[in-house]
Write a structure and sequence with these properties.
By secondary structure, the chain is of the alpha/beta class. The protein has 2 helices and 26 strands. It is elongated and about 130 Å long.
Length: 414
């Protein structure tokens, strides 16, 4: 009987051990399966992340190619969804769209093994061009009451055809940027349809005036280039007492005066150097720009009486450039005879006026279509300045540069 109990007890212990072994093996198998599942999931996630990274690299390659093409004056569009560019086993294409004045939106899409990504880059074109402001005063800009500064595009028609709104809100386009290396101030009911950009460390003071854009200061000062005065045959003095035409070509005058109600026509292309220019009231200087532009270089004095007018027949401001060496700002350390600059009310100019050493005071109701740069600017009430956006390209002197405005990831569309 004892022997039987001993045999039964041994068999029972062997059964329990076998059950424990089976449970352990099952547990290890389950743990191994779980670890394998986790490993496979992690591997899949790493694989998907790697594909997403590859698709992002495709987008960046596309944006780099688009910028390369822009810098060479080509279209920034690269391939398309049906005919993508192939690189490193992936594919990319870039769409381009206008996002505003001098702004381009580049949307790049990248695809790698069925995983797609899209990125958007907005870039601003910075022309190599000094004519980017309606008004710029190196020392300061002061706008009296009811002054209007806006923009239009002469290639799209007349200024009047581009105006919307009424009363004080009537304006055309909103690139009427006003700038200075110093301070800017504006009086009541004055509207600047664009940015008012003071110099670094300076500010904008608004006395019940409105600026539609930014008033943040610039990060660097604008450098004024020197004026180079050419030397041509001197024709002496010219007094226009009857309607007169100057033929195409380059020449110099000591004094040029256009008398009341008379018209002087200058045929382009031409460079005219003038010691002193006087326009009596209701006089005209028109530029026959059918064959080319005209540059007037004024050495000393400029006098425009009321209702005097200077403009190209085409009304394209890029075709009349007025360079002024006039210096009418007193320097306490230097004793010189100051030049005289008088610009009376109701005068009108279509062109680009550059007077780096002159303080220009404009009487009321003066109008300029184009751009004006001077040492300082003081505008009386009811002056109107209309920047021609065509100058941004027409007056370019070299290759444009580009700056990034914004970058973001956007949803990929298959």
């Amino acid at each position: 009987m004892s022997l039987q109990r001993i045999q039964y007890s041994a068999q029972s212990r062997r059964g329990s051990a076998l059950a424990m072994i089976i449970l352990c093996v099952a547990g290890l198998a389950a743990l191994s399966a779980a670890m394998m599942t986790v490993s496979l999931g992690s591997h899949r996630e790493q694989g998907e992340e790697a594909l997403q990274n590859q698709a992002e690299y495709m987008c960046q390659a596309g944006l780099s190619q688009a910028m390369y093409q822009m810098q060479r004056g080509l279209s920034p569009a690269v391939g398309n969804q049906h005919q993508p560019q192939v690189w490193g086993g992936g594919q990319f294409w870039v769409n381009s769209a206008v996002a505003g004045l001098n702004l381009t939106r580049l949307t790049a899409s990248g695809l790698d093994n069925g995983v797609g990504k899209s990125q958007e880059l907005v870039v601003r074109t910075i022309p190599s061009n000094m004519w980017t402001h309606a008004l710029f005063g190196k020392d300061s800009v002061s706008l009296d009451s009811s002054v209007k500064v806006d923009s239009y595009n002469s290639t799209l028609g007349t200024y009047a055809s581009q105006v919307s709104g009424s009363g004080l809100n009537a304006h055309a386009l909103a690139h009427g940027n006003t700038g200075s290396n110093g301070n800017i101030s504006a009086g009541s009911a004055t509207n600047v349809w664009g940015n008012a950009t003071p110099g670094p460390g300076h500010s904008v003071t608004l006395h019940e005036a409105t600026v539609s854009g930014s008033t943040a200061p610039a990060t660097a000062q604008v450098v004024y280039p020197p004026i180079n005065v050419p030397t041509y045959f001197n024709y002496g003095a010219l007094i226009v007492s009857a309607n007169t035409t100057i033929p195409t070509g380059n020449r110099t005058y000591t004094n040029l005066r256009v008398k009341n109600n008379k018209t002087l026509t200058i045929t382009g292309p031409a460079d005219i150097v003038i010691s002193n220019l006087t326009m009596d009231s209701n006089s005209w200087i028109t530029i026959n720009d059918a064959n080319g532009p005209v540059t007037l270089t004024i050495i000393d004095n400029l006098k425009l009486d009321s209702n005097s007018n200077l403009y190209p027949i085409s009304k394209n401001p890029a075709n009349l450039r007025i360079n002024m060496l006039s210096d009418n700002v007193a320097d306490p350390e230097v004793v010189v005879q100051l030049d005289t600059i008088n610009i009376s009310s109701n005068s009108t100019i279509y062109g680009c006026v550059y007077a780096p050493e002159a303080r220009i005071v404009l009487d009321s109701n003066f109008s300029l279509y184009g751009a004006l740069m001077a040492r300082s600017l003081d505008l009386d009430s009811n002056c109107n300045f209309h920047f021609d956006e065509n100058l941004l390209t027409a007056m370019m002197s070299g290759s444009s540069t580009y700056e990034m405005v914004s970058w973001r990831e956007v949803p990929y569309q298959d």
